[in-house]
Amino acid sequence: MTNPLLSLTDIHYTYAGAAAPALSGANLELYPSSRLGVLGDNGSGKTTLFLTAMGILKPHKGCVTYAGSQLKDEKEFRTLRAEIGYLFQRSDDQLFSPTVIDDIAFGPLNLGKTPNEALSTATEMLDLVGLKGFEHRITHKLSGGEKKMVALASILAMRPKALLLDEPTNDLDPATRERLISILASLDIALCIISHDWGFLDKTCTSFLKVENGMTKPTECIPHTHIHTHQGGDATHNHE
Ligand SMILES: Nc1ncnc2c1ncn2[C@@H]1O[C@H](COP(=O)(O)OP(=O)(O)O)[C@@H](O)[C@H]1O
Ligand SMILES: [Mg+2]
After folding, report:
1. What's the confidence (pLDDT) of residue 2?
2. pLDDT for residue 225
3. Structural domains present in the chain
4. What's the CA-to-centroid distance between 77 and ligand 1, angstroms?
5. Low-confidence ranges of the chain (pLDDT < 50)
6. Ligand 2 centroid from CA 131, angstroms
7. How many Cβ atoms sit within 10 Å of the Cβ of residue 11?
8. Environment class of residue 68 by beta-carbon count within 10 Å: exposed (0-12), middle (13-18) or buried (19+)?
9. Residue 77 host element (H or E)
10. Which of 56, 116, 185, 205 has the fewest CB atoms within 10 Å, measured from its CB?
């Protein structure tokens, strides 16, 4: 059996001033070919788990292991952040350049690519996410769904070994949601996706983890009775 690319072991984290811990013994293992869906109620600790995985929050107890090494200092987490693409729950936390093309080219430039290479990758990724022609648009003036796809293009431009996506379908119209499903299917890398969109998780993931009160447990599958696939010619039906 191959080793996990990323493991979080017994993670504990309490926000400053919070009455209760956000995470109290959470675990996650992401294998190189994992397609792991993360489910859980609002406030259960899903986003906090991703933030500790990326080293943005430092757990008070527990460890993060990436590619076989336990990560301790900021320098080690920088390697992880260069190799794992993280899509923030709020795109405004992710995008910071004035124009779309600058935002997407930033990652490749930071990885040492030439301006020409970075520009060519950025243009290719913009096309992939369906936003051809958006190069010089002002990032902060885009719609929520457009921002989400620009953020996705900016992480894909870094050719990541894995993606952590935090509620990626929020704000997406149905066609863009379908585009995202096919982009993810075309990638040959590990995926870990937090979502309340169970139909989306059903189409993109093969194993599932439930977060409950800051703790994790593997779960067989998502409750299929709640997935609205809307397939076939059944125009009139209700969901009960
Ligand atoms: N910056 C923060 N300061 C204090 N408490 C926070 C902060 N961010 C999140 N929390 C709290 O930590 C818990 C877990 O939050 P979060 O990981 O965002 O949950 P989820 O993503 O599952 O909805 C919640 O109770 C939330 O209110
Ligand atoms: Mg969240």
Report:
1. 85
2. 54
3. 6-221 (3.40.50.300)
4. 22
5. 230-240
6. 26
7. 27
8. exposed
9. helix 74-83
10. 116
